[in-house]
């Protein structure tokens, strides 16, 4: 019997969706993460002293690799990929350590460390079934919750106009961000059926139009853009510096915890079930090996994007074909630089207006996961202590001043890493039964 093509399939992992109707849903996923995907490149390239031409080349490679990584997550190759609607992109988790390694050892050392670190994470992913048991549901739930909390400041910074911008928190940015947010909410309230799930795209479009008429959209980057360009292979010869490799491998382990959390949150919020060991294993393997492939193009690690987990939690759009449309758009944005640079003109305030609620949705997903684990004394202790130290300590990063620079780079501003380490330790050392008296 021939499989029917229906827009209703956007709520199912598999199934055909009309291409014309799938495009806006796929585009919505890409617009939600596009600026955040290229921002780490700009920051690290600047810190490493790279020129404008090299910067543009890396942005192009980032878009192509993010699209390829997303396709592999959606449609696994052997054991690499989860088969879940996970969108991939350049990870912010590595930015602080790269901004230290770049000026110290050079960008080539970063490329070499990413190559090695990606292989290690990929292999760990393939053998996840042997160690994943230490990541119990309460540990995953705590990590997911911390991911949501860690992104709230990112959404707020975007709402204000982007961290470090000259007009941060200006009236203009407040107006643009507020209008965008209200458009998302109003569209979600009044739209019918599946159109309701395009509230983020509607907010982005209206916000962009408002920003354009307020003179905030900057088209200057389009002047010298070439129409079509292919990425360069090995533009930076990898250098294998042991100090850089150790630092980056440790961050890869931190990134792996975020990937486990993202995969768990996506399965819970989008599919109403727990992620399987096979899915987590494939997700980690994809993270690692696609990052190694990314290094061959001189680019930074490609990992699961929490922003898009929040979008799935909001819209419940999980169809792999639909997300694949978005991945193809990302690849085209890399091959046709003009298209990519046009998408990059999306102002931060517009993005902030849409993402602030998406990130809050991840927090709620994490709390729901904690609730499903049950509120035993042991679970409460693990969640409460890991979240309070992870979120609390990273609010005052100076508390890590007594530790070596490497430790500060990993933990001082990364609450997910702290939450994961504390939750794992507590899960291993706390007795199984901590109740003061048997439950009635």
Alpha-carbon distance between the two ends? 54 Å
- How many strands? 2
Number of helices, where a helix is a run of at least 4 consecutive DSSP H or I residues? 16
The overall number of domains is 1
Strand line-up in the sheet with most strands: 1-2
Biggest sheet overview: 2 strands, antiparallel
Question: Radius of gyration in whole Å, from Cα?
Answer: 21 Å
Question: Helices and strands: which structural class?
Answer: mainly alpha
Quote the average pLDDT: 86
Estimate what percentage of residues fall within beta strands.
Answer: under 5%
List the secondary-structure elements in sequence, H or E: HHEHHHHHHHEHHHHHHH
What low-confidence regions span 5 or more consecutive residues with pLDDT below 50?
none
Q: Helix amount, in percent?
A: 55-70%
Which shape, going by the Cα principal axes?
globular
